[in-house]
Amino acid sequence: MRDSTPERRQLTATVWTLGVLLTFGILGLIDWSTRFKGYSFLEPLELNNAAPQVWQWLTYALVHGGPWHFLMNAFGLWWLGNLVEESYGRRAYLQTLLGGVLLGAIVWWLTGIGGPRSGLHLLGISGGVYALMVVALLDRLETPITLLILFFPVTVKARWVLVFAAGIATLGWIFLELPGRHAWTFWNPAWEMNSEEAIAHSAHLGGLVSGWLMWRWLGRAIPEAGGAYVVQSQPMPASPEAYHPETATKSPTGGLSRGQARAELDHLLDKISEKGFGSLTESEKRKLEELSARLR
Hints:
This protein folds into two domains: 213 residues, Rhomboid-like (Rhomboid-like fold); 55 residues, no CATH class. It has ten helices and four strands; from the N terminus they run H-E-H-H-H-E-H-E-E-H-H-H-H-H.
């Protein structure tokens, strides 16, 4: 779209996040391979249920319990993070991810207070991934998504992906995680699970709630992006320039030189890169189409 010398494309925040996770994933492999007498040099980053440190409320997301745990979260982050960043921009992506990580940790810790297993640690970025999933898919509920289930492709609408994720997180928290972290006589886990491989469903629930709150906030802040508050009860008045006798037959970009048109286009593209396509007004979207067609 730009009539200029190609520049190196700026890496997205999603790619940077994946790079950081990959670095800590490699450190995790080294940690597992060099562990001496049970000591782990990454353990101070994990969220300790009994005595959580201030930094652990966020750094726990950098550490994963193994290759499969890392790969599943990395794939979800790559897919959903790109959708959120393209729709709402880099800042919204980072806010959604960090909000899901933080609220996921809070819900996990609160639902375990008073439990006998004080040595539990929380790790993994899945709370943030669940928050990204809500923001990415709530505006695409009717979009078909193809999933590989037991190596067979299954296509479902995005709404059912959200329903399934929320259902698994809720049921897993009620029947497995919550009774497994407490010494209750009236409520026990539905089946026994290895404590070292237990899933933190409460963190997933916290991520879902955080993502929903973020989606509602984005609906107010960026209504053109298809958020929660795009409601039109009556036809909007036409733009005055559409009926102005001097502009009705005249393109708003017609009087610009080629250099000025390129500068206008660069400004719009920079805005899209920073805040997402939904941040453009209707007049800016029309101008983007005209400038793109002119500079081809």
